[in-house]
Specification:
two-stranded antiparallel ribbon, globular
Length: about 140
């Protein structure tokens, strides 16, 4: 799997900073980033989040595992997790980190997962978050 293309942001290119977009991500990563955004919007609007997630993820089991992953992410992430609007093509830094974590789990690359988080999250929290990602991937794999 090739790493996503990074496109320079017009404003940030001079600083050597780049921004990623949804189109830069593999399909599963993009779907789960959008699922995060939709769940946040549905929850904020007082709508049934599970209904939206089940529709997006293909099963109530996947919706339930995704909800547990999101709750774990909220508990262990060191700061507020920033999301773009569902219609926005650009990824926030947190969404990009989330997509990379998902990629490491899909590729069964636990060392890369730990390296990405070692300066942000303690080992017990990394273990818990990794387990939740793997639980979701197992359900998604069984749906395919």
């Amino acid at each position: 799997m090739q790493p996503p293309r990074m496109q320079p942001s017009h404003r940030l290119a001079g600083l050597g900073l780049f921004s990623a977009t949804l189109i830069d991500l593999p399909v599963l990563e993009a779907q789960l980033v959008v699922a995060l955004r939709v769940a946040a919007c549905a929850g904020k609007a007082g709508r049934d989040v599970d209904e939206h997630l089940t529709e997006r993820l293909g099963s109530p089991a996947a919706s339930a595992r995704f909800s547990v992953l999101v709750a774990t992410l909220a508990d262990v992430w060191p700061e507020t997790f920033h999301l773009s609007r569902p219609c926005c093509g650009k990824l926030t830094h947190d969404e990009w980190e989330y997509a990379r974590l998902l990629r490491h789990c899909v590729n069964r690359n636990r060392p890369a997962f730990d390296r990405q988080l070692c300066d942000m999250i303690d080992m017990d929290s990394r273990d818990c978050l990794h387990d939740r990602f793997m639980d979701l991937i197992a359900v998604l794999d069984s749906n395919m």
